[in-house]
Each structure stands twice: as C-alpha cells, then as structure tokens.
Write a structure and sequence with these properties.
2 strands; 212 residues; 6 helices; transmembrane helix; 2% strand; Cyt_c_oxidase_su3-like_sf; two-stranded antiparallel sheet; elongated; single chain
C-alpha cells in the first residue's frame, strides 16, 4: 500500500487530483480577493488622478524594481526545485526551495525598508501623514490602498516562506520522490500566486506615477 495515500482515497491519482483541485479553488478565491482590491485602486485612481500620480511618485521605484526581480527569480528557482525532485535529485531540490524561501525573506526585508522610509517621509495615513497641498487628501487615499494591498501581499509572502521551509525540511528527510511530490507542487502553485499578484501591483503602483 502507498505510504502517502490517505484512507479516504482509492488511489494516489485520486488523492493528487483532490489536492490540486482544492489548491486551484483556493487560488480562485485569492484572485477574487486581490481582484477587488486592485479594482478599488483602479476606480480611485480614475477618480483622483493627480493625487494618485503624486502618491505613486513618492514610492521607491528602485526598491520596487529590485523586489520584482527578486520575486520573479524566486519563482524560476522554485520551478527548478520541482524539476529536480522529479529527477530524484533531493539535495538540489531542497537547496532550490531554501533559496526560494531566502529570496522571499529578501523581498520582505526590502519592502520593510520602503515602509521605514515612508514613515520618515510622513506617508503613513493615521500613523504619520505629514503631506500638505491640494492633492494631499487624495494622495492619502492612494497610500491607504497602497498599504492594504502591499501589506496583504507581504503577509502572503511570509506565509509562503514558512510553507517553503516546511517543504524543504520534508524534502531533506526524503519524504518526496519522482512518484510523490504533490505538496511541493502545491507550494509551487502558491508561490506562483504570490508572483502573479505582484506582477499586477508593481506597474499599477510604482510605474504608473513615475511614467506620468
């Protein structure tokens, strides 16, 4: 009997299909969740174009670009890790997953640096907002949405890092093989979600204002 087969499944393919279906359903709910936030951002940007453009110009384009590169690189390395386990290369697969998690931590550190800089500039609504002028109120709306969207995304990155470290440890212990690596696939799908959300956040928040 397959050691990885749960009692309520008939065979490994059925178990994998159920797990993948559950993960895709979760991803669908997350897409709806972030979709509503991004839709709210688009509507408010249309309603307050000057304030949102000014707010976007206050974001750190360099750090945002580095964060984007870090996340995209981490997604590629995660795919390498999945391929390595399919080739029965557990050690290199474990290393790839650990590197992916490390890049996730790097992303969080970089984004934390942004938050610290924005605090010193007085760009955090209700905490320390020191901006004045005709567009100060609409720019405050921009930063409210900015912190909600990027904060929730960072939370997802943090959850992903913890998940990857657990998967890496299980990989190191030999729990996965070319015949069973469903948890690793699911972790890869989750990390792809983190990447894709940021691909929409980066141009909308960082690039739009700096290109104006």
């Amino acid at each position: 009997m397959n050691a990885h087969l749960a009692e309520h499944f008939d065979d490994p393919p059925q178990q994998k299909e159920a797990a993948m279906l559950g993960m895709w359903a979760f991803i669908a709910t997350e897409v709806l969740f972030f979709g509503v936030l991004l839709a709210a951002y688009i509507v408010c940007r249309w309603r307050f174009p000057a304030g949102f453009a000014d707010g976007s110009r206050h974001t750190d384009l360099l750090l945002g670009s580095i964060e984007t590169a870090v996340l995209l690189a981490s997604g590629c390395i995660m795919a390498v890790g999945l391929r390595e386990i399919q080739l029965a290369k557990q050690r290199s697969a474990c290393l790839a997953i650990v590197i992916t998690a490390a890049l996730g931590v790097a992303f969080l550190v970089l984004h934390g640096m942004e938050y610290v800089d924005e605090y010193h500039e007085g760009l955090i609504p209700t905490v320390r907002y020191l901006q004045n002028g005709t567009d100060a109120d609409s720019m405050e709306v921009f930063f409210c949405l900015y912190y909600v969207i990027t904060g929730l995304h960072s939370l997802h990155v943090l959850i992903g890092v913890v998940l990857l470290l657990v998967i890496a440890e299980r990989t190191r212990r030999g729990h996965f093989s070319p015949h069973y690596y469903t948890p690793l696939e699911i972790a890869g799908l989750y990390w792809s979600l983190v990447d894709i959300v940021w691909i929409f956040v980066y141009p909308g928040i960082y690039l739009a204002g700096h290109s104006a």
